[in-house]
Amino acid sequence: MTVGKNSQSLRQDNLCLLLRNILSAETALSRASLAKQVGLARPTVSRLIDELVDLGIVSELEPVRNAVGRPAAPLVPRPGAYCSIGIEVNLNYLAVVVLDLAGAELFKVCESYACRAGSPKQVIGRAFSLLRDFNVPAGMQIVSIWLAVPGLVTPDRKSVITSPNLGWENVTPSAFEWDNLTGLTATISPTNLILANEADASAYTYIYSAPGKLNADATFLYLSAEVGIGAAIVRRGKIFGGQHGWAGEIGHMCVDSAGPVCRCGSNGCLEQYAGLEAMVRRAGLERDASIDQLLTAAGEGETKAEQALCECARALGIAVANVLNLLDLDLVILGGHLAALHERISDVFLDELRHRVLSSRWASISVSPSKYGRFTAARGAALAGLEAFIRNPETWSA
Questions:
Q1: N or C: which end of the chain has fewer CB within 10 A?
Q2: Going from the N-terminus, what domains does the chain have, and what CATH number goes with each?
């Protein structure tokens, strides 16, 4: 027996439908054109639009005269009314992005920071301290704060189960005392954090080109790389998280059963060939050498550096080919330091994929670098927060 929705549930669904159409419209819609687009009665749409305007979510601009018919008032997301904060904790830096419902970037900052050297509380506290420079506009509501970390998080998004490269185990930010975070508004607090895997957060940047603007056909493998290697599997606009939400740990896929021991306890993991620390070690550089220093060494013809990049490309090709064979994907997006390596490793990487992916004879494989740099995961986290807000009208308040 199918139980129909009650009037309140139907109202919320329709509010969400209208808001999503307003946010994703290439050209601003009027009440009449919106009603026609979504297939609802004009009186119903008009009543719901009144609610969105009263809530401060949507603004109705001055009527514009069209070539045909009466002047129509465009509906647009109200700028500066609601925003979401996205934060990334990586091994060597912290990044913060604040987006509003209109997609405007209200604040953005990235700071080099040795996150492995501090406790989880110190690191998260430092990330929040960066928000002291964000002047929250009067009347603006912060709808969510998402924190992206390179590790596994609990299904309720409240705790980090493990982040081997950060050295975090069973970290619950809301359990800490945060009295020392002065200079922040009450709504900017680690007690309200929603956690996400860093690779998944990065993928949201390509699933949503702007708040509410879903690319429903988005299907790709996103690779995120620093010391570790993570992945997000996206099919038709949705991230495949697996049974527990932990899918995508490609960095611990074995590419050589006789390979070096990994910090996870296994050996021959992809991370030991394509992780930044592993590559600079193989290149004979200092442990804290940057990806630019590695590229410079290879460009100057240093044999070990060239070999490290070649081994990275081949190992990456083996691991990614296994994923593509299993899941039938044809687009790979390279994030983190792999984006910087794209031009240098793409030939060897693509050769491996074409050699190992069965379907490559009939469907071409595309590889492209991420275009958002160190802000990818933080931006994706902010977009994820806005999407959660859009989907839940019951959380909207005047």
A1: N
A2: 7-77 (1.10.10.10), 82-205+376-395 (3.30.420.40), 220-329+336-369 (3.30.420.40)
Q: Dump pLDDT digits (tens) for 254-282.
A: 999 999 998 888 999 999 999 999 999 99
Q: Is the Cβ–Cβ distance between 189 and 363 less than 8 Å?
A: no
- Residue 26, judged by CB atoms within 10 A of its CB (0-12, 13-18, 19+), counts as exposed
Question: What's the CA gap between 123 and 204, in Å, rounded?
Answer: 24
d(CA 270, CA 279): 11
Q: Residues 100, 79: contact at Cβ < 8 Å?
A: yes
Q: Which of 38, 72, 146 is nearest to 389 (CA)?
A: 146
> Which of these, 252, 273, 256, 261, lies nearest to 316 by C-alpha position?
273
Q: Which residues does 53 contact at the CB level (< 8 Å), separation at least 6? A: 59, 60
Q: State the Cα–Cα distance between residues 105 and 94, nearest whole angstrom.
A: 17
- The three-class DSSP label of residue 232 is strand
* Helix axis angle, 31-38 to 42-54, nearest 10°: 120
pLDDT score recorded for residue 2 = 46
User: What are the two backbone dihedrals, phi and then psi, of residue 145, each rounded to the nearest 5 degrees?
Assistant: -130, 115
